[in-house]
C-alpha cells in the first residue's frame, strides 16, 4: 500500500488499494487485512475514509469484521454477491427480449449440463412440473414453469449456476408472466409450450446435451418470436 493523493476521493482510492492488496498478495478467505488504524496511517488518509471503504466491502460480502478478530476476507458467495448487485441493473429499459436472450445463454448451458448429470429423481421432478403447463390458470402455468427450470438447474448439479438462477428468479418470474400474457389467449399455445418442455426433458433423460440445449433454446426463440409479432402488430395498429 502507498499514500493516497490529496485530490482523489479518498474512500474510492482506499477501495482500489485494498483490491490491489488482495490481488497482489493473493489473499484467501480467512486472511486478515491491515487493522483500520494501521491502514489509515499507511495510506495517509483519515480513519473515516478507511471505515467507509470497509463498510462498502462488507456490504458486498467481500470482507467481514468481528470485534477482537479484525477484518478478514470472506469466502465468495455468488448468490449474495449477485443479490446485492443485481437490483441496480433492473432498469425499466431491460425489456423482455433481452431477458429471454440472456436466459438462452444461461439455461441452454444448464440443459446441456443436466443431460450429463441428471438422476432419475431429477427427471421425475421435471415431469411433475410439466403437467402444470396445461393448466387453464395462468398463475399455475407460471409456477409450474419456474418449478421446471429450477428442477433442470438442480439436475445440472452446479451450485454456482443454481445460485445465479435463484438470484434472478424474481425477474425470471416477471419475464415468464409477461411472456405468458402474450401467449395466454393464443389458440394451442399451452399445448405447444408443453411439447417444447417435453422435448427438453426427453433430451436430458437421453443424456443428449446438445439436443437438450437446442430444445431449450427453441422454446425461448418461440417466445421471442411471439413478443416480436405482438410488438409489430401493436405498432401497425397504432399507425392506423
From TrEMBL:
The keyword Chloroplast does not apply. InterPro entries: GntR_C, TF_FadR/GntR_C, Tscrpt_reg_HTH_GntR, WH-like_DNA-bd_sf, WH_DNA-bd_sf. SUPFAM superfamilies: GntR ligand-binding domain-like, Winged helix' DNA-binding domain. It comes from the Bacteria. Residues 8-76 form the HTH gntR-type domain. Keywords: DNA-binding, Transcription, Transcription regulation. This is FadR/GntR family transcriptional regulator. It comes from Paenibacillus solisilvae.
Amino acid at each position: 500500500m502507498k499514500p493516497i493523493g490529496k485530490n482523489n476521493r479518498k474512500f474510492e482510492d482506499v477501495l482500489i488499494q485494498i483490491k490491489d492488496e488482495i490481488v497482489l498478495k493473493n489473499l484467501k478467505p480467512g486472511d486478515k487485512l491491515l487493522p483500520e488504524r494501521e491502514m489509515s496511517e499507511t495510506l495517509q488518509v483519515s480513519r473515516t475514509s478507511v471505515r467507509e471503504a470497509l463498510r462498502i466491502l462488507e456490504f458486498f460480502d467481500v470482507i467481514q469484521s468481528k470485534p477482537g478478530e479484525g477484518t478478514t476476507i470472506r469466502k465468495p458467495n455468488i448468490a449474495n454477491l449477485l443479490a446485492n448487485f443485481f437490483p441496480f441493473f433492473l432498469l425499466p429499459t431491460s425489456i423482455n427480449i433481452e431477458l429471454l436472450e440472456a436466459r438462452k445463454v444461461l439455461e441452454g448451458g444448464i440443459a446441456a449440463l443436466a443431460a450429463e448429470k441428471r438422476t432419475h429423481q431429477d427427471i421425475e421432478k421435471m415431469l411433475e412440473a410439466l403437467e402444470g403447463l396445461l393448466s387453464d390458470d395462468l398463475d399455475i402455468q407460471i409456477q409450474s414453469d419456474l418449478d421446471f427450470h429450477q428442477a433442470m438447474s438442480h439436475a445440472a448439479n452446479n451450485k454456482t449456476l443454481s445460485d445465479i438462477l435463484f438470484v434472478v428468479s424474481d425477474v425470471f418470474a416477471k419475464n415468464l408472466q409477461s411472456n405468458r400474457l402474450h401467449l395466454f389467449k393464443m389458440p394451442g399455445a399451452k399445448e405447444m409450450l408443453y411439447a417444447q418442455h417435453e422435448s427438453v426433458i426427453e433430451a436430458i433423460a437421453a443424456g443428449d446435451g446438445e439436443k437438450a440445449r437446442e430444445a431449450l433454446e427453441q422454446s425461448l426463440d418461440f417466445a421471442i418470436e411471439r413478443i416480436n409479432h405482438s410488438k409489430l402488430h401493436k405498432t401497425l395498429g397504432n399507425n392506423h
